[in-house]
Amino acid sequence: MKRYDLRHLHDDFYNRMAELIDQGLKEGEVGIFLFEVKNDFSHVQRTADFIREMGHDLMNSLKFAEPDWTIVVKKLDEATRKARADEIAAAKVKAELEAVEKAEAEAAETGKAD
Questions:
Q1: pLDDT digit string (tens) for 24-38?
Q2: 79-84, long-range: CB within 8 Å, 24+ apart, which pairs?
Q3: Neighbouring C-beta atoms of residue 94, cutoff 10 Å
Q4: What is the pTM of this model?
């Protein structure tokens, strides 16, 4: 387990966090990342989304101190990450197709109503 303090980077810590996960952690190893939130809690959700997009496990997310937040990330192997990325891509395609089908159905209903 390794601990990384990213508070000094303020709002610009995502690239460094990705670099530390990729190069600083071994597969199966856990990293603890500390970053600054102050009154902007949008970084909490963005960090969760970022870790998910990278294909790793977000194991915990909690407030550390008044302006700080801590997340715990487990680095996963490449095969698992690729499988997760494929699942996310498939889900996005499915959601886009469903949105198009819904829009077409609504357009057809509107056409019938006229």
A1: 999 999 999 999 987
A2: 80/55, 81/54, 81/55, 81/56, 82/55, 84/52, 84/55
A3: 10
A4: 0.75
